[in-house]
């Protein structure tokens, strides 16, 4: 006797449900959802207990404190600030100061690291030994000690303002910092700035065209002379045509310190030097290993065509080595940004010192302030990673 349609359907339902439980995709989704739920409950419990404890002690919570008057000064500000501004303003001041030292450190560390990495492979014994000694010394000394060295042993040993080391009557170096003239923009200076912007954009466009032309025809374009003419020559022509509208404000000694011009505080200089030199020692080894990873036959083939060593390095070796260099280089950039939080040790007003330090001590709202500070470093790291990943895809080898 054949089973009815109803009996067949009733037998298939348990079989389908059993198959679903043994389905790897279904089980992975379920387990991940349960893990996320447990993690969410864990953090909710911690935050709820913390808020209840703070409320029991009479400590305020929330972000209303950001609108309160700060009441303290900051030594270095890239935006307008004084004691009457709010704690929210101190957050932005600290954020910009952290971004400033991070960007400066990344630029200088990259230049110095590439130079030392290439010097490490030099055929000149003295140059290669010097690079090796530099790498071994600065890579193996703790960063905090290097910051102390540059700040206390070097910069704090400079003379006072009245005995400043000077270069002419324009640049002065003393224990309070480095002072040099500041540009003063008069009427017509916008034309000069516009010419500079046009020159930079034109240089980028011509460089892209020159690279495509070289790939198609093999002919090279003298980009250095073109860039010099557009970026330097064009603004100079506009500067003289408009009657020299940009002047300079020179620093002048008044009392015990200089007034006017642009000043670089010693805390910024010490931190930038230490971060750059320390990180460059690691970048140098990354560059050295990346160059060594390129097949030596590539170098021999380029030199057999008559290319000098400098052009072989620039046109053949470095472009191939970048595919190996960039991923670990990104990690060094992230480390430099996070290591900038050591600025608190010498009083540089970065985010940790100004916001997670002074502001936290005054308002006492640790959860909000620490969460905001962590969020800033996370955002900076993710932004750096995203930009480096874009560049990595650009130089990556594209398979046909």
From TrEMBL:
GO-annotated cellular components: ATP-binding cassette (ABC) transporter complex
Domain ABC transmembrane type-1: 95-388
Transmembrane domains' residue ranges: 29-47, 95-119, 131-153, 191-210, 222-242, 262-284, 342-363, 369-391
GO molecular function: transmembrane transporter activity
Record's bilayer topology term: Multi-pass membrane protein
Subcellular location: Cell inner membrane; Cell membrane
Pfam name, any one: BPD_transp_1
InterPro entries given in the database record: AA_ABC_transptr_permease_3TM, ArtM/GltK/GlnP/TcyL/YhdX-like, MetI-like, MetI-like_sf
Record carries keyword Cell membrane: yes
Listed GO biological process terms: amino acid transport
Entries under SUPFAM superfamilies matching the protein: MetI-like (SSF161098)
CDD domains according to UniProt: TM_PBP2
Protein keywords: Amino-acid transport, Cell membrane, Membrane, Transmembrane, Transmembrane helix, Transport
Coiled-coil annotated spans: none
Origin: domain of life: Bacteria
Family: Belongs to the binding-protein-dependent transport system permease family. HisMQ subfamily.
Name this protein carries in UniProt: Glutamate aspartate transport system permease protein GltJ
């Amino acid at each position: 006797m054949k089973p009815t349609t109803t009996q067949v359907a009733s037998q298939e339902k348990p079989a389908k449900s059993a198959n679903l439980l043994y389905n790897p995709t279904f089980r992975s989704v379920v387990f991940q959802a349960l893990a996320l739920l447990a993690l969410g409950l864990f953090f909710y419990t911690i935050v709820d207990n913390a808020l209840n404890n703070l409320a029991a002690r009479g400590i305020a919570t929330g972000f209303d404190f950001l609108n309160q008057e700060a009441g303290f000064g900051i030594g270095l500000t890239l935006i307008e600030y004084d004691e009457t501004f709010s704690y929210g303003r101190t957050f932005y001041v600290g954020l910009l100061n952290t971004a400033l030292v991070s960007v400066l450190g990344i630029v200088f560390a990259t230049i110095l690291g590439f130079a030392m990495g290439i010097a490490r492979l030099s055929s000149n014994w003295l140059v290669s030994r010097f690079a090796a000694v530099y790498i071994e010394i600065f890579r193996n000394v703790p960063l905090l000690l290097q910051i102390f060295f540059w700040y206390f042993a070097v910069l704090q040993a400079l003379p006072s303002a009245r005995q400043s080391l000077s270069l002419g009557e324009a640049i002065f170096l003393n224990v309070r910092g480095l002072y040099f003239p500041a540009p003063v923009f008069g009427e017509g200076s916008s034309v000069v700035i516009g010419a500079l912007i046009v020159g930079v954009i034109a240089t980028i466009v011509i460089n892209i065209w020159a690279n495509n032309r070289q790939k198609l025809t093999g002919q090279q374009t003298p980009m250095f002379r073109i860039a010099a003419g557009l970026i330097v020559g064009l603004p100079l022509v506009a500067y003289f045509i408009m009657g020299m509208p940009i002047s300079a404000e020179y620093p002048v000694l008044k009392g015990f310190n200089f007034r006017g011009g642009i000043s670089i505080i010693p805390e910024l200089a010490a931190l930038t030097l230490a971060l750059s030199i320390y990180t460059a020692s690691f970048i140098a080894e990354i560059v050295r290993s990346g160059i060594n990873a390129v097949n030596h036959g590539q170098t021999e083939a380029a030199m057999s065509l008559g290319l000098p060593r400098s052009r072989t390095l620039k046109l053949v070796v470095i472009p191939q080595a970048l595919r190996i260099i960039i991923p670990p280089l990104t990690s060094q950039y992230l480390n430099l940004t996070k290591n900038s939080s050591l600025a608190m040790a010498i009083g540089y007003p970065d985010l940790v010192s100004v916001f997670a330090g002074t502001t936290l001590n005054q308002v006492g709202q640790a959860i909000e302030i620490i969460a905001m500070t962590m969020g800033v470093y996370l955002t900076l790291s993710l932004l750096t990673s995203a930009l480096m990943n874009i560049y990595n895809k650009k130089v990556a080898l594209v398979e046909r």
